Amino acid sequence: METIEVNGQPPHNKEPLVLIIGKMDGVHLGHQSLLREAERLASAEDKIAVYGFSDHPKWVLKGDEEFKYMLSKEEDKQRRLEGFGVDRYYHVHFTKEYAKTSPEEFVLEHLSRLNVRHIVVGEDFRFGKGRGSDAEGLAELCTQIGAEVSIVPGVMLNGAKVSSTDIRTHVKEGRMEAAQAMLGRPFELTGIVEKGEQLGRELGFPTLNMGDIDDYVNVKPAVYLGLVKIVQDAPEYYYTLISAGYRPTVNGDSYKVEAYLLDFSGDLYNRKVSVQFLRHLRDEVNFDGMDALVEQMNQDEREARSILGL
Fold first, then answer.
1. What gap in Å lies between CA 129 and CA 294, rounded to an integer?
2. What does the pLDDT read at residue 204?
């Protein structure tokens, strides 16, 4: 998949595009519906492209911490979009200056440069300065550049529309099954294995210390059952116990995510891995000493093996 960085106006393009517009954080079931519609509309001559925004407007414009962190880093999002058949990704850097773009400028001075044949957006799509226009307004403006607009209804789950905001809430509150239902896959963090304090090894539970995950929404402090994927040409998977939180029993002073791989031995330092969260087992607890902690860790492993039939 080709990636084009956009600061302001995008570069001119001659190839006909079917274009999906949106932040696409998480590439959840709602986003997948847009991708399927684009695939349906695209002819053999068309390229399918995504016009994706870098940061949430509520973080850029209002400093709202809730929207600073993401369900998927850029590399995650782009990898998933490529898997859905996207040919080109426009990575649009959303800044305070970019936010001043009017709806008319966005269509007539930005989208007009892309040779867009068809545009796909969700029914809640809003754009332009102050979120000044909506999907219907986009369709009206796009008649001036010869592009049709398809407005796709949201995907409903139990009577509520699937949204990145709700998925973030589920993740922050430890409801991994609910997050998975909306994403269509387990919630996942991808990072680099760092060298930690190696306390887990001393206790008989050597763990992977996840680095390079600061962009993600913080998972609720707790112990989870999950999977670790070792990222390589032929990925390897291992069931894992995941500890997310502040490690109060050992006087931890920062948030960390660590994974204890079942039935694995080896060195993964500086390797890229993905941690996938399947279900919440228990909340983080401040135990009365290391013996109580080790006893609980053994119980966690027994419970995990029972669930998995290992």
1. 55
2. 55
Percent of the chain with pLDDT over 90: 75
Residues 186, 243: Cα–Cα separation, whole Å: 16
Q: Burial letters for 198-213: b for 16+ Cβ neighbours within 10 Å, e otherwise?
A: ebbeeeebbbbbbeeb
Contact 120, 150 (CB under 8 A): yes
Model confidence at 257, in pLDDT bands (50, 70, 90)?
A: very high
Say if residue 240 is exposed, middle or buried (CB neighbours under 10 Å; 0-12, 13-18, 19+): buried
Number of H helices, E strands in the chain: 9, 16
User: pTM to 2 decimals?
Assistant: 0.91
The pLDDT of residue 114 is 97
Helix (H) or strand (E) holding 103, with range, is helix 103-105
For 165-192, b where at least 16 C-beta lie within 10 A, e where not — what string? ebbbebbeebbbebbbbbbeebbbbbbb
